[in-house]
Write a structure and sequence with these properties.
heterodimer, A: 309 residues, mainly alpha, MetI-like fold, 2 domains, 14 helices, B: 376 residues, 74% helix, 1% strand, globular, membrane (chain B), Carbohydrate ABC transporter permease (chain B)
């Protein structure tokens, strides 16, 4: 008996050993994939940030690690007027940069806000009431809104150029805000429709019985519940608007030019210093990197809604 | 536009319809009529000035825009007056609908008109109707069709992106430490603007003298790494950069799909002694098909808009090898101010996209139905 039990347990032990080996290998594979992809994701960012502290020889010798390969210098940031020794001096480059930066901030925040307001209202209406616009029923109206997503910007760009000239909206922030709102509206409606579907109708019915109007029930009961969804929609819109280049390049020139257009115009000029370009790129991507790290939860929630039923 | 006024809401059960006095209905109609009258009047005045008949001091069409907004407000108000509770419900959708109609339908009609004209923004003449000339010119434009072919290649690259995104989603879904850290890191590429990326990767990392990627390629044994000299290589470089930005999007959608899979099925498969490989192909992958299709469709939609990276890194070069349709039309406008012709190209592109997506969705729908029957 004892002998038999012994063999069984050794067999078991051997099995677990091969299994453990397999699992170890699998884990090794999983972690190497994770690390490899993390490097792929982070290296361009690392490269840009470190290059903004380099000087010409460091760039040419392909130095990578600060303080080991080379001593960090403020050269790139000085050319933007953002290094410690120039931050209090007058700098035309910095003024230009800040103007573009503010344009980006104002247009993307206003457009996202407007889109969330318009989109949430429409999504709520479509998820709760039955409409009939001529032959169009709810499903058709939803489709009408969502189908805007496939509209390539290039189709609208040229008509808008002509229209905005007639409307005196060319090179204005308002003009960009309106276009960006249009661009992100379908995404907001998509996200918010799912959000509102998840809110039980009984809550509103109770509110209506208590004497609130439809709008009262929406503003006081539904809105607070679906606020996380709105934040997700807002953040996603913000990312898309902040990074938008195509419309901004065509429709703005001196006044309303946004940050991506400024970065692009600097890239085009030959003989631009790598360190200044790197500093400019870093400054352009930094706000969204911070937003991404802090609000990652909302971004993921926003992207996952609607895709998974 | 008067379709909107026909908006009727079918009464739901829990609201008692309140009778609306005839006087209020009349007021509602009057409000709407006043708004319409004002819009028409201002548009007419502006049009008269445009034609040079009278000068009423409207320098631009801007007042018409204000009149449209005013008309929208009046429309909403009249809805509430005339239809009470139903009108208040219509107010939820009306703002967005009016906004989209003004911003899409009107410009699209305008685009349709412009695309059959000869209009160069740098010349002083306005648009001049030239019939089918633009279409004929498009048919003979090798660069446009070349860009179209490039779009096919770019779209096909989504297969590889999808495979990578699925792999990453699986890895993130497995039992790992520091999951949140990796999730944040994997998401970061999506935050970067394509323009900044163009410089960061396309212009500096892939720079063939000092770029780290070029150095890396040299270390691997590639004598003279030039990422944008050879047409196929240039196309591939663009694909890689675009994939880098958008893989996180698909990855997150697929990850959400994986997390919503029923746990019991996986458990059952493991108890039955299925290997991970079998579990994936027999269970995970089929269950993930609907989510996968959503992810790929969204990705296709974004891919068809691809332009920023190309405009900033290669400007379509070498010899148009990397041009996307959007970047090609962008240059057609930017460098040649050819609004009429460029718009026609864009409109044709839109028609092709819509036809392509409708066919794709139909095929997928039919295939998924057949697939469901097979499974059940």
């Amino acid at each position: 008996m004892v002998a038999i039990e012994d063999t069984i347990s050794t067999a078991q032990r051997q099995e677990t050993q091969t299994e453990r080996l397999q699992r170890m290998l699998l884990r090794l594979l999983v972690y190497s994939i994770l690390l490899l992809w993390a490097v792929i994701c982070l290296f361009p960012i690392y490269w840009t940030v470190t290059t903004s502290f380099k000087m010409a020889p460091d760039v040419m010798r392909g130095h990578l690690v600060p303080w080991v390969d080379y001593t960090p210098q403020w050269l790139g940031w000085r050319s933007l007027g953002l290094s410690p020794d120039t931050i209090f001096n007058v700098s035309t480059v910095r003024a230009e940069f800040l103007k573009r930066f503010m344009n980006s901030v104002i247009t993307s925040i206003s457009a996202s806000f407007l889109a969330v307001v318009l989109g949430s209202l429409a999504a709520y209406g479509l998820s709760r009431f039955r409409y009939r616009f001529g032959p169009m029923k709810n499903a058709d109206i939803s489709f009408f809104f969502l189908s805007q997503l496939i509209l390539p910007p290039v189709v609208l760009a040229l008509p808008f150029l002509a229209l905005y000239r007639e409307l005196a909206l060319l090179d204005t922030r308002i003009g960009l805000i309106l276009l960006y709102t249009l661009m992100v509206l379908p995404i907001v409606i998509w996200i918010m429709r799912d959000q509102f579907k998840a809110v039980p109708v009984e809550l509103e019915e109770a509110a209506l019985v208590d004497g609130l109007s439809i709008w009262g029930a929406f503003l006081r009961i539904v809105l607070p519940i679906s606020l996380p969804g709105m934040v997700a929609a807002f953040i996603l819109s913000l990312i898309l608007c902040w990074n938008e280049y195509f419309f901004a390049a065509l429709l703005t020139s001196t006044e309303a030019k946004t940050l991506p257009v400024m970065v692009a115009s600097q890239t085009g000029s030959q003989g631009i210093n790598w360190w200044s370009m790197a500093a400019l790129s870093t400054a352009a991507i930094a706000p969204l990197l911070i937003v991404g790290v802090i609000l990652e939860r909302y971004i993921i929630a926003g992207m996952a809604t609607g895709a998974v039923k | 536009m008067d379709k909107a006024t026909a908006a009727a809401v079918e009464p739901d059960d829990f609201v008692i319809p309140d009778p609306i006095p005839e006087s209020r209905k009349r007021l509602g109609r009057m409000v709407f009529a006043a708004g319409t009258l004002m819009l028409v009047a201002i548009a007419l005045m502006r049009a008269l000035q445009e034609l040079g008949i009278v000068d009423l001091g409207f320098a631009t069409w801007r007042p018409v825009l204000y009149a449209y907004i005013f008309w929208g407000v009046m429309l909403g108000w009249s809805q509430v007056l005339r239809r009470g509770e139903d009108g208040k419900r219509a107010l939820f959708v009306l703002p967005a609908a009016l906004f989209v109609v003004a911003m899409v339908v009107f410009p699209l009609l305008f685009a349709l008109y412009v695309s059959f004209t000869d209009w160069n923004l740098s010349s002083l003449d306005g648009p001049e109707f030239n019939g089918l000339d633009n279409l004929r010119r498009m048919a003979d434009d090798p660069f446009y069709w070349n860009a179209m072919l490039n779009m096919v290649w770019y779209t096909l690259a989504i297969v590889a992106e999808y495979a990578i995104a699925f792999g990453l989603a699986l890895v993130l879904h497995s039992q790992i430490r520091a999951r949140k850290f990796f999730r944040v890191v994997f998401l970061l590429p999506l935050m970067l603007s394509p323009v900044a990326l163009s410089w960061m990767v396309g212009k500096s990392m892939m720079e063939n003298r000092f770029g780290p990627l070029a150095n890396f390629a040299r270390w691997l044994g590639w004598e003279n790494p030039a990422f944008f000299a050879d047409p196929w290589l240039a196309r591939l470089s663009i694909m890689v950069m675009d994939a880098w930005t958008f893989i996180p999007l698909m990855m997150i959608i697929l990850l959400a799909g994986l997390q919503s899979l029923p746990r019991e099925v996986m458990e059952a498969a493991r108890v039955d002694g299925a290997t991970p490989w079998q579990t994936f192909w027999k269970i995970t992958f089929p269950l993930m098909l609907p989510v996968s299709i959503t992810a790929v469709i969204i990705r296709v939609i974004f891919k068809l808009k691809l332009a920023d990276i190309i405009i900033n890194v290669t400007s379509g070069g070498p010899g148009g090898a990397t041009d996307s349709v959007t970047s090609f039309i962008f240059r057609e406008y930017r460098d040649r101010s050819n609004v009429g012709y460029g718009t026609l190209l864009a409109v044709v592109y839109l028609v092709i996209i819509v036809a392509f997506l409708v066919t794709l969705l139909n095929l997928l729908g039919r295939w998924m139905r057949g697939y469901d029957q097979e499974v059940n």
